[in-house]
Amino acid sequence: MKLTYFLILIGLISLAGSTRLFLRLRSLPSWRLFFTTSTLFLLSGILLGPHGINLISRTMLLELKPVTVLLMGWVGIVLGLQLRWHHLRRIPLRIAAGSQIQAVVSLLIILGGFLLLWRMWPVLTVPFDSPRLFAMLAVIGLSTAPEVIQISGLALIRNQHSFRTALFFANLGRITAIFAIGILYALYRPSTGLLPLPAVHWIMLTLVLGAALGLVATFFCQHSKDEAGFLSSMTGMIIFAAGLAYYLHLSPLLLTLLMGIVTANSTPRAIRLFEVLSRYDQAVFLLLLILAGALLDIPVPGLVPLLLIYLVLRLLGKYAGNRLANVLLPQHHRSSTRFLLPQGALTLALAINQLQIYADTTAAAVFQILLLGSLCFSFLSLLLLGGWRR
Fold first, then answer.
1. H helix intervals, the chain
2. How much is the pTM?
3. What residue spans define the domains of the chain?
4. What gap in Å lies between CA 340 and CA 121, rounded to an integer?
5. pLDDT in tens, 119-177
6. How far apart are CA 315 and CA 8, in angstroms?
7. Which fold has domain 2-389?
């Protein structure tokens, strides 16, 4: 019966994610922006989960962990395969520096704001590991959903330069968030499990494993004769790499991202690999969104004030970071902060990942704040983008 439920779920995802249906629904003015954000699929996950019709029960969520491992690895390697050096070196230095300024300023405002409030009202975060809570929210809050920028129509409204700059800021912000979360996993190790090595050793181990697995993936790329063998061998590599990261309490997204970067820069066939894997991007992200919604549990104590603080600090961080980054950019490259607010599936993938690694009250609080924050920023983006379109 559980297998039947799971197959029904996959069928629903495939139907919802089919290009034809998606395009038809987006063509309706009142639904267009609703479908460009993560809102619909998060709400679908909540409806299907234990707090809805219980089609996806708590037991099933535990049994679906191997699927989550595959999804995390898939997202990481697809992002890594896009980072080819001969493409990256063409990016103007001012735009690259601007994107990092925007990310750093956002991180400092979110983290600094939480630390300041913690000093003023220590009781605000009594049940949690406060430093880890703040660091996770600040780092994962960097992520922006580029698909919202892509579909929003900014390119048709203003100019191609602003569109490309906003899209680049969003994509690089996702990469920065993945690297930062990998460092946090090395700094905040779970209390039980593997050897208590220094953080720098875990960071070096992640880099070495990513490079080694990337070379193995390159070997498979060069020796796969047909697409079926190509896909099966790489799926096996993704599962192995992400599973190894989970076992070592490392970030599967970072490890597979590194694997993708090495593969992308060591074989011309990496372009073909990216084309094959990216065909399934939509289904992977939709499944992640639905799983995130299903994982929503009873709110932890003290969640509401932390959520409100997070929303305000992220808004301030994105606004201030964008304004400072614009100093480096030509006038025709300047983008709007409203396009950097939606968080999307990658944010929730990072949240799910830390929930599975730590499995404590602090991790649950991070996940719930990010999920509810993602919904809030989705609705806010609907208003801002809708106002822009009018």
1. 2-17, 19-26, 29-36, 39-48, 58-63, 65-81, 85-88, 93-120, 130-140, 146-152, 154-157, 160-187, 199-223, 227-247, 252-264, 270-278, 281-295, 303-326, 344-358, 361-389
2. 0.83
3. 2-389
4. 30
5. 888 777 767 778 888 999 999 888 877 665 555 555 444 555 566 677 777 777 788 88
6. 38
7. Na+/H+ antiporter like fold (1.20.1530)
